């Protein structure tokens, strides 16, 4: 009985950590980019990206389990691709997750400032970014158990506020808005969708936390990615069906999160307030997941085997300081940081890298794996071509 309870607890913790990592700032931009193409095309491209990210997540898990406990992207790339691969992967990891942290700071700090203002504390400018960094940096610095507990609380609060939003706004959904389609535009939603479905960064940390239990890890990855998929589908149904297309286009053009368009749904102040709380909880869960993996990544890079005490505090400061400065200097960087993170960082680290590592491990190093379908040469090639397509689309959008 005790073993079953422990196993269920591990699976639940892993599921919430993965789901919390995925449902974050990408949620605030997702219905804006899919709304341009319409509901049906948006859902189709959402399912395609989920399937791709789920597949590469399983590939990355398998590679992680080939490595010693505590290994991260640097160790994996160094083993299978040598020093050049280690440097490239390390640089892309830092680029991606600092971009995401910048986006989280830019969107989350103003929301925290609004919440603190309700209890009489007023912060603005660089101060609100500093407070945001101190509050959540402290949680990360304390350790994995602190992150896990806060993440579960925030995940439950996020789901609760999401349900309130759906219940309050569902009556505003209009069939004629859901029936609009613009098929070619759905391709340009893929970079942001890559950011929305990114969870691979927590897999090495999760392997350690779940004691390398392969079954628990795979179940956690499946349900941890399915939950956000369901949330995203219903979320797009609400936003695309309730907010006029011109408002969605204006919000996307302004580079602001979807919460800026909530006023046009019901006109009720409470709906806007709940929307802000939802956005805050979604961002916090992602901050905790990304920062959790960043601390382990930096510890791996600086060869810090025991990431506790002052050493963990130092790694946490390195994780939070650059995003603080970049967001404080450019508060409107949210959309840019999110798009670039998905189109380049996610496509490489969560797409091309797991594919390349699996190919090298299985076909060059001859390591054993039970992923017979996903490990097939032809399927790996197809997945790789898709990742290159997303990178090409992001380049086209920037140009």
UniProtKB/TrEMBL annotation:
Protein name (database record): Tyrosine-specific transport protein 1
Coiled-coil annotated residue ranges, if any: none
GO molecular function, one term: aromatic amino acid transmembrane transporter activity
Cellular component terms per the entry's GO annotation: plasma membrane
Superkingdom in the source lineage: Bacteria
Membrane disposition: Multi-pass membrane protein
Transmembrane segments: 12-33, 39-66, 87-107, 119-143, 150-168, 188-209, 221-243, 269-292, 313-341, 347-365, 377-396
Annotated source species: Simkania negevensis (strain ATCC VR-1471 / DSM 27360 / Z)
Key word Transport present: yes
GO biological process: amino acid transmembrane transport
């Amino acid at each position: 009985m005790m073993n079953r309870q422990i196993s269920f607890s591990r699976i639940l913790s892993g599921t919430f950590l993965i789901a919390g990592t995925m449902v974050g700032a990408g949620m605030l931009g997702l219905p804006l980019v899919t709304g341009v193409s319409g509901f049906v095309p948006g859902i189709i491209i959402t399912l395609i990206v989920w399937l791709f990210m789920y597949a590469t997540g399983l590939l990355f898990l398998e590679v992680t389990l080939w490595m010693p406990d505590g290994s991260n992207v640097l160790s994996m790339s160094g083993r299978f691709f040598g020093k050049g691969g280690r440097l490239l992967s390390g640089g892309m990891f830092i680029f991606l997750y600092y971009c995401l942290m910048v986006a989280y700071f830019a969107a989350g700090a103003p929301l925290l400032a609004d919440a603190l203002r309700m209890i009489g504390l007023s912060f603005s400018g660089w101060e609100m970014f500093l407070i945001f960094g101190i509050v959540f940096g402290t949680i990360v610095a304390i350790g994995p158990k602190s992150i896990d507990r806060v993440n579960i609380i925030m995940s439950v609060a996020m789901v609760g506020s999401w349900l309130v939003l759906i219940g309050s706004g569902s009556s505003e959904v209009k069939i004629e808005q859901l029936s609009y389609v613009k098929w070619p535009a759905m391709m340009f939603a893929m970079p942001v969708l890559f950011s929305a479905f990114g969870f691979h960064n927590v897999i090495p940390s999760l392997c350690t936390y779940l004691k390398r239990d392969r079954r628990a890890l795979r179940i956690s990855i499946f349900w941890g990615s399915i939950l956000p998929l369901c949330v995203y589908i219903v979320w797009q149904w609400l936003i695309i069906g309730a907010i006029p297309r011109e408002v969605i286009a204006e919000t996307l053009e302004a580079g602001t999160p979807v919460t800026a368009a909530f006023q046009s749904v019901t006109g009720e102040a409470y709906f806007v307030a709940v929307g802000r709380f939802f956005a805050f909880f979604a961002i916090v869960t992602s901050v905790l997941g990304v920062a959790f993996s960043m601390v382990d990544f930096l510890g791996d890079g600086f060869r810090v085997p025991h990431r506790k005490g002052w050493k963990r505090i130092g790694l946490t400061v390195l994780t939070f300081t650059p995003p603080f400065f970049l967001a404080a200097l450019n508060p409107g960087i949210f959309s840019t940081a999110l798009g670039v993170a998905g189109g380049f960082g996610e496509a490489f680290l969560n797409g091309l890298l797991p594919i390349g590592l699996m190919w090298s491990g299985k076909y060059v190093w001859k390591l054993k794996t039970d992923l017979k379908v996903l490990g097939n040469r032809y399927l790996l090639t197809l997945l790789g071509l898709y990742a290159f397509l997303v990178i090409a689309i992001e380049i086209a959008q920037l140009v």
